[in-house]
Each structure stands twice: as structure tokens, then as C-alpha cells.
Amino acid sequence: MSRRLIALLILAVTVLTACGRIQSTRPAAAGYRLFIAEGYGPGPQHITVRNSGTGQVERRLLLGTPSPDWSRYYTVTQVTGAAVLTALNPDSGRTLNQTTIPETFELPVLGEGPTAGLSPDGRWIALVSRGPDAAGHTVTEFLVGSSSLSQPLTKIRLNGNFAFDALSNDGQGLYLIETMSDANHYRVRLYDVATRSLVAQPVVDKREVNEPMEGIRGDSIADPTGNQVFTVYVRDSGPFIHALPLLNQPFAWCVDLPSKATKDLETQFRWSLAIGQQGGAVYAVNSELGMVAEMTRGNPPAIARTKPVALNRDGNLLAGLVTDAEAKGPRIGGAALSADGRTLFAIAQSGVLAIDTATLQVRVRILDGESVDSLRLSADGKWLYAAGAADSKLWQLDPATGTVRGQVKGVTQPWALLWAEPMH
């Protein structure tokens, strides 16, 4: 095929695709406050707080950790010879409480989940510090305590390389990821805060007690009751969901996800999880594989249904010619479930899919032809927001119909939607 013919083909497809894109610049409906990770580059990272109707920036927050309901927001700032842990009201920016901590401690990173470091109910908090001892061996320390910061935090010291995994709602069970000498393997460990001791038995699947765990952490969610945390892990032998009951006992469940390309870790990282506001089944969707799965939460949990979903419309001339070069890790907000639990929204290779949870069939395609990086349902379930960093777009969608209400103005490379709530 000649270069001229290829150029004409691409031009024709571009025109056709543009016809399917949402060209409206109608402003989004007012009355909502959006918390967005925007922009790339060096220097301190911030969360932008915007008015949905005007797009106006109300404030910028240092990159930190919100409580699950976003009533509190935690940051760590450095001062001379120490650090300050601050709890603030993210709506107003008002400081609620502060405490001084050793300068080496920090909150778990955003890539471990937007609320990593807090118990599912938000009442307890954990911070981590990691470094060598005098002999050069890795030592990990944690600070654990009430998220109100009204009492001193408990300091925990462990020999070895540990990372935060989860914290039970009573603040007594600290679940950790222990990196082994073989970098491809790890163990989940339970630390009993009350007795100041590491439980001897690693957290294991009752069905595979002796099987070593391996993988890299992906997307993670907690159920609404806070009694269980679900995390995707990717590995050469295929991805799985680690279902961890926060019952202060060393048992969990590993549930394999379907996979067509077990060696392709970037494709595995595209698995996103969603769960309803009232609990129920856990949905996993992968925009690269074109696969959706429903996991029931029994004892043990199990994949009840899987179904392929078409990621591109039939006849898309660019299918197979264009690849997602930015797929490097798990998305923050790759999937969302409607308030009534009837529709699963998922990022596709182009736009957003609305999937009927009764049939796992695609009900409608939204923003077809647009690049989307993150989804977030508003706290009241009224609006679905979709962000695309490549074109600096942020759409407000009606989750009941899939129609576009408008766009939030002024955003710059919005790569993660963290929260959306009605203004009071």
C-alpha cells in the first residue's frame, strides 16, 4: 500500500472518528466539587479542587491520603529535623489537627490506592519509614493510631522490607506485604498491634497453604462494610484477585482472573475493580483483554461469570493499527458501578462502556473516539465523571442514560479522578 493511500486512509478514518466524538463545549452542571490529580512533571504533586460548573480552582492540596468518605485529608510536610502529619477538611482546607512525627515517615503512595494507609472506615491510620540499620540491613517502621490524631501513634519496628497492605477497622490488625530475598515472591503478614507482635504464620489461602505468593500489586477496593479488601495482583502465570478478610486472622483467598496474555504484565495491569455502595458482587474489567468478570463474595469467593466485551466498534479501520502506549500500570478509577448496581462503567480502548450487570453485555458506548483515563461516580450517584489527560478533557455524564451533560472547563491533563461530591 502506498504512503499516499495510507495517508488518505488515516485522514478518512480521522474524519469519521471525529464525527463520533463529543464536540459540545456546554459547561457541566454546577453544584459539585471535584478532586482531581492533574498534570505531570517534576516538583511537588498536588490535587486540584474544582467547581464543576465553572471549572474554577478552589484550592490545591498537597498529594496526600483522603478518608474513604473524604471528610478528612492527610498530608505530611517536612520541617527542620521532623515532619508534621496534618488532618484537614478537604472541602474548606481548614486544619483539623496536627502532630509531629519523625522526618522519615510518610503516607503510603497513591499508586497503592487513594486511601492506602487508612482502615476502610477511616478511623485508623498507618505511616511507613524504611531504611538500613547500622549493619546495612533493611528495617521498616510503622506509626499506627487513631486518625483523629488526638493520641500518640504507636511505633512498630520490623527487620526486613515491608509495605502497607491493609488495616482492620478496630485498628489492631495491620496487614503487610513482606518482600522476600527472591524479588518475584512476597508474603502477606499480619501484625497484631495490641500485642506488638508479628503473627508467625503468613496470611495464606486455606486451599494452597504451601504455595508461595508472587505478583505485583494492581487495583484495590474495600467492600462497604470494611470487612474485606480485594486487590489485583499480576504475575507471569496470570492475574488474580487477593480477597483479604480483615478479621485479624492469617487467611485469605486467591481467585484467578481470566487471561489471554499471561506474560504481558502491562495488559494484566489493565484490570480494574468495582463494587456497589451496598456491597454485593465484585466486578473486574480489563480494557486491553476485552473481558469482564463477576466475582461472588462467598466463602470462598469465586468467579461466577466471565464474558468478552468488544472494545472497538465493528468496522473500525484503525483497530489493530493503534496501540495504547501509555499502559504502564493500574488505573485509578478504571471502572465504576452505578448507584443502583445495574450498570458497570469501564474505560475501553476508546471512550467508556456501559455494561449491563444482569447480562454482562455492553448496553451503550459513551464518548466513542475519545481517550479516557479515569472514571468516578459522584458520591450521590447522580453524575459520572470521565477524564482524559491526552486532550485535557473532563466530561460530566448522566449514568442513567449515558448522555453527556457537559464539560468541566480549565482542566490540565487530568489523569485521575479521586472524588466528586455535592457542594453543601
- In the CATH scheme, the class of the domain at 65-106 and 115-202 would be Mainly Beta
Number of strands: 33
Beta-strand percent range: over 45%
Helix count? 2
In words, what does this structure look like?
With 424 residues, the protein is mainly β. It has a domain at 65-106 and 115-202: Methylamine Dehydrogenase, Chain H (7 Propeller), CATH 2.130.10. Helix content is 5%, strand content 45%. It contains 2 helices and 33 strands. The protein has helices spanning 3-20, 265-268; strands spanning 32-38, 46-51, 57-62, 65-66, 73-79, 82-88, 95-101, 124-132, 138-146, 154-159, 162-167, 173-179, 185-192, 197-198, 204-205, 213-214, 216-222, 228-234, 240-245, 251-256, 271-276, 279-286, 291-296, 302-308, 335-337, 343-347, 352-356, 361-366, 374-377, 384-388, 393-397, 404-407, 414-422. The strands form 8 sheets. Strands 11, 12, 13, 14 and 16 form a 5-stranded antiparallel beta sheet that branches. A 5-stranded mixed beta sheet has the order 15-20-19-18-17, with no helix packed on it. A 4-stranded antiparallel beta sheet has the order 3-2-1-33, with no helix packed on it. It is globular and about 60 Å long. The relative contact order is 0.12. The model is unreliable at 1-23 and 314-327 (pLDDT under 50).
Short note summarizing the structure:
The chain has 2 helices and 33 strands. The protein is mainly beta and 424 residues long.
